[in-house]
Amino acid sequence: MSSSSSLERALRQRLEERKSKSQLRRLTSFPSTSVDFSSNSYLSLSVVPEVQKAYIAHLEQLTASNPRTSILGSSGSRLLTLELSISTGINAPKEIFRCEEPGCDQKFVRADLLARHKKRHFTSSYIPRNRTFSLKSSHPELAATSSAPAPNTTSTAGAVPRTQFPSHTSSGPHDAAILLTPDSEPAPRLAQASSWPPSQPTMHGLDMNMGSKTAYYGREAVTMAAESSTMLPFDNGFQADGHLSENFAMWLFDAQAGWNELNAVANMPFLEGGLESTFSCNRCPIFLVMVMLALGAASLRASDTTSTYVEYGGFADVIISSVRWEIVTAEDANPPVALWVAQALLLLEYYETLFSFRKFHERAHIYHSATLTLLRRGSPLIGKAGTLERDVAAFHHAPAGLLFNSGFDANVGLFSCVPQPGDVVVYDELVHASAHDGMRMSRAAQRLPFKHNTVSPARRPHPLGYTPPARQSLGEILAALTQGASGQEVRAGTRNVFVAVEAVYSMDGDVAPLREIVACIKQHLPRGNCRLIVDEAHSTGLFGLQGRGLVCELGLERDVFARLHTFGKAMGASGAMILCAPVVKEYLINYARTLIYTTAMSPASLAGIRVTYDFVATEMADELRRRLRKLIGYTHGLFVSICARYGAAPRPLVRVDAGLPSSPIIPLLTSHPRSLASYCQERGYIIRPIVAPTVPKGSERVRVCLHAANTKEEVEGLARVVEEWVLKTQKEGLQETQPQVRKAHL
């Protein structure tokens, strides 16, 4: 009891010490009507309805029970498996299940599909799939079948001439055909024939159970009657099944082209989908063919530079919009999803991700329960399953990536284990606290700070007016490391030097001169033993093409050893990723304690990351970034005008950098940050005071973080409240105190 009481007294004493220095932090709640200018959610993705809908869809997808889906490996083990596959893919079935009912030769790749099929044998209206005609009994004139007659055109009195198409002997039953390997020998099935009706039936007359379709394409040439159509005759015969399956897309769009004239359609995702050796257009449900037709048209339109296929994009969207509902409402779309539905929905998802010519918000409703069922159950033909890490790394032009629960964990894990004994870490004095914590835990021989954003020895006054602690420039420190006997290993390249900077600094909002830093490193350490680490926490989603970050914007991917991208700021999600070489990733998996000894990320976090990365590359996200940049300039102008009107005093109450800020972070320096923040919060504007030891003594401030969702009226209201506080404070006689220069307590 006494030891417990002494501990409580010690804790209370420490709290009283911080309280006496006005440094005690408390959690504060604000009314829902308050305007937030404090958080780092720069793009305001959490309030975008399209992102919310897509997030819910992806969350359902990831949280569904599926023993084959690996969300994350077990936490706490030294080797942490991080395969974030949505499903496990194979290119061919391991086992074929055959129906043994008399007169039925159906085969399936899953036992549950066979069980569902057998139940249908005991219904009075059931006809085996290999004997079912393409149209319902509402068209009895189409029910007649024959044994593959030669194609001919007939006409009757008062009827429009129509063409009869021959059938062919299939190489296998429909359900398993698209999954059979070249070594499979399925049993033959009955030949069938069909003819078109005198008039086109309505969609209500069609059999939407596409798993039962057997309307095959004929092998022989088909000639349309000249008197019944103005279209040019299509008299090219089809190749054999095996030949067609090699390049179905080219056959579909350019039947007269030679096999050496592959057009842009050949670069379709069919190989990734596992269709290269199993697909045959001669025994494919019509809806699946239509989806592939749309994919081919969209691919041609996307690669078109001469406007030759300008109408193909709209054509593809019309097909996708029409066929989607037919697929997801089919009987085979109910769990367990039939194989043709699985293929069609996978290709639909691919189309919506890469080729949709509709805006994001116009297609947010497409996430149907059948699509989610497919994605959470997995498909045997999904093939080459990808990972979230691989997708994010590819987006940022990096060879590999490793997920962490937070940016703090990522920084601590990287800096604590990668520097080896004897190495040196040189860092900007204003890097994140997590980098400092990681460096303290590392085995590096030296940790040397350099003056903020200063590459050369030239001394420049800080734009915000306060004097930071005297530091050497980066160039001076690197030059000193190569001098004397102690610098021999550095000069020889056997001793590593790590340089740690941030792309955008969280307190001042300024941008690192990365090009100058890279040039300085190459000048002083040309042997390549200097490793640059860039923290892109505040540049992710804002800088570079589609928000890829400052490193990608400057084209410095090859010059950076590791990058940290966080998902909790502009991306509006949670978590972080280290982008690095594969060997560094493997090393972190084995030695980063913040990765090994922690709980794996939740499905909700993974869904949030996936959705935000899908959205951040859209035109709508580009518009949010443009809007935010305009808002930054407008808000900064308001604060500059306030400082101009009330800055005549020797020590003005509020100071702001006169230069246009490069980021949404606008610091307002004041010696009364708590008073200003409290005044604004009481009037519905959430801004936070930043005081020592978070920032050096004398550089206290309130930090304004702008979001794309902020309106012009909101920032005008904030500026008006700040001006009111300046007038009120001047009347009360408070003066700006002379700043004291002290080293930040980190």
From TrEMBL:
Alphabetical UniProt keywords: Metal-binding, Nucleus, Pyridoxal phosphate, Transferase, Zinc, Zinc-finger
Gene Ontology molecular function, alphabetical: DNA binding; pyridoxal phosphate binding; transferase activity; zinc ion binding
Positions with biased composition (Low complexity): 143-159
Keyword Transferase: yes
Pfam families noted in UniProt: Aminotran_1_2, Fungal_trans
Domain named C2H2-type: residues: 97-121
InterPro entries, A to Z: Aminotrans_II_pyridoxalP_BS, Aminotransferase_I/II_large, AON_synthase_class-II, PyrdxlP-dep_Trfase, PyrdxlP-dep_Trfase_major, PyrdxlP-dep_Trfase_small, XnlR_reg_dom, Znf_C2H2_type
Gene3D superfamilies tied to this protein: Aspartate Aminotransferase, domain 1, Type I PLP-dependent aspartate aminotransferase-like (Major domain)
Matching SUPFAM superfamilies: PLP-dependent transferases (SSF53383)
GO BP terms in the entry: biotin biosynthetic process; DNA-templated transcription
Cofactor(s) annotated in UniProt: pyridoxal 5'-phosphate
Family the UniProt entry places it in: Belongs to the class-II pyridoxal-phosphate-dependent aminotransferase family. BioF subfamily.
Protein name: C2H2-type domain-containing protein
Biological source species: Verticillium longisporum
